[in-house]
Amino acid sequence: MPVVETASASAWMLEGSAISYALALGADRMPRNLHFGPRLHSASDLLALAGSVRSPGVAPFGGMYGQEYPVWGGLFYDEPCLKVTFADGTRGLVLEYNSHRTRPEDDATWLDVTLRDPAYPLLVHLHYGVYERHDVLERYAVIENTGDEPVTIEEALSAVWHLPMWAGYHLTHLAGRWAAEMQVYREPVAPGRKVLESRRGHTSHAANPWFAMDKGDATEEYGGVWFGALAWSGNWKIAVDADTTGQVHVSGGLNDFDFSWHLAPGESFRTPSFFAGYTDRGLGEASRILHRFEMDCVLPRAFASRPRPVLYNSWEATTFDVNEQNQGRLAEIAASLGVELFVVDDGWFGARDSDRAGLGDWVVNPRKFPNGLGPLVRKVRSLGMEFGLWVEPEMVNPDSDLYRTHPDWVYHFPNRPRSESRNQLVLNLARPEVEAHITEALDRLLSDNDINFIKWDMNRPFSEPGWPDAPVERQREVWVRHTRAVYRTLETLRERYPDVAFESCSGGGGRVDLGIMRLTDQTWPSDNTDAFDRLRIQEGYSMAYCARTMMCWVTDSPKRYSGRAIPLRYRFHSAMMGSLGIGGNLLEWTERDLEKAREFVEEYKRIRHIVQGGDQYRLLSPRASAVTAVQYVTPDRSESVIFVLSSPHLLGEPAPTIYPRGLEPAAAYEVHPDGTRASGSALMGHGICVPLRGDWASALVTLRTG
Ligand code: DGJ
Prior knowledge:
The protein is an alpha+beta fold and 706 residues long. Among the domains are: 278 residues, alpha-galactosidase from lactobacil brevis (Beta-galactosidase, Chain A, domain 5); 79 residues, Golgi alpha-mannosidase II (Immunoglobulin-like). It is built from 14 helices and 36 strands. Helix 5 packs parallel to helix 6, helix 8 runs parallel beside helix 9 and helix 12 packs parallel to helix 13. It is globular. The chain starts with a strand and ends with a strand. It binds (2R,3S,4R,5S)-2-(hydroxymethyl)piperidine-3,4,5-triol.
């Protein structure tokens, strides 16, 4: 049974195939954590642990004592999961166990524990899901007002994860900026609090809602790693606390900054989900657990088992200057390369000749497409490709018909400027009529045109997040209401148009998280398409997210931003490590490059099931050596590919041996291109040598059994 409980029903254990998570009621009837880590093997282990549950009094000056859902009240000074104010002004919370139940749902088994405030009509339902096969836990909370007066929620996190007592934990996390998203950082955990967060209204380029913790000894392959990821695309927070008692815990959920929620009588508030897991097989396995979980349980079912198509996107080639002719010409060349999905990016609508106008007016620009999108769509289809379109539904340019008609539809504060970024403002999706408007506009677009794919962009963070028409007690709800409206709109569109796939983009990689992945089929990691810079971005991405969701384009060289020139082969190899796309101006590619591109696309199609569906191993990190190597292995271990890419290095610098991973030790593999045959154990133990000469050299090595 994935959820075990003691006869007294005061301790529970959630069991995966290699992990256990146990909790028990303390003397104060509050659930406390007993264990989160390697699998415990019997219910008697649980009993033994339950005898050791720590209760208040252990630490002289207050503390968390392993509380499963600490609330703000009493001698409590750490990060609470819940902070509320009752209608009479009482701000302290007291909770105690009320009831529990277990239930199977979807791919998980759930333990639901309900806590109640003994003096006020408030219930808190803690939900614990265990995805047994994947060794992943899911936690969220529902706060229910059962009284007849409102309650104000000031902080509502999803969960806290307690780690065993240890000095010397290290935190690995992802941080960055526009064009350099998801860089990997690893640092010792010091006393105090480290907060990873977004206050920007979207997931953010600056930080990503994922963490990994280890005892200071983990590598890619070895060592205990606790990891977690939030399923939320708005303001979020992950706080790593090393408290005064020496305990280390990681709490996370909605960001409480500028947040409050007016919980009316009879209403409930659900927090986003916080997923977590543990492995004793290093950071690499922590990533693979998440990757498999995403592929099996998170991504929309409609496309989860189909290969992601090779895509062409017009953005870098034609920017806002799209029209029926130039897109038609690009489509012809793209089709000849083997592209399967042709996407027209920004510029096809309203008065959109630059980023200064048109956003919000989702009608086809009649000058650029005099007969609507129909002729181009038909052409793309006749060339054997699917058709995709870019939109940015949450935004408006002040120079647009939408804004002229509804200037009050954007977030703003009275008597304050409306700060523009990229000449645009953010639509207030907390307003039901605005959400209805964008749902209807997108619905019309999809019903009027034969569209198979939507790239949903969001090119600026929030500012002046005011909603002056709303009651004052509701105005800080915008942070949550906005994200929920985005999710609802996507859900509605997916339901109405089940054959349409979606990409999440936010001015590059500003919206990559497990929340958006439940509703989109792929994401855009960065506007930086430089094939070398991408290696680090892709490495960071791979810490938490699977390769099939990671869109990578081959673009022109030298790059406009970096001025760096990189050969086509390297550019393809870098982009083939995820879902391949082409984003260069094909009208200017030489015949020779087009011919080569055709071969790479063909090759990608032969190996994409390995990349998009396989286990990923980060063999050599671009942070650590001039040679980067990334391997993918099919789940049955019969096929594998290794990408090896070399950046500029000193003459004579030794090329590192590459040690493949994940192969079947006894099986014989044929290695290409050199034709060697060797057993999996020899390849993994002895390694392979991939000679690369010169800067920007790269190779794709395949290994196949039989
Ligand atoms: C930002 C995206 O990341 C780009 O790929 C492109 O779609 C532009 N927006 C269009 O404005």
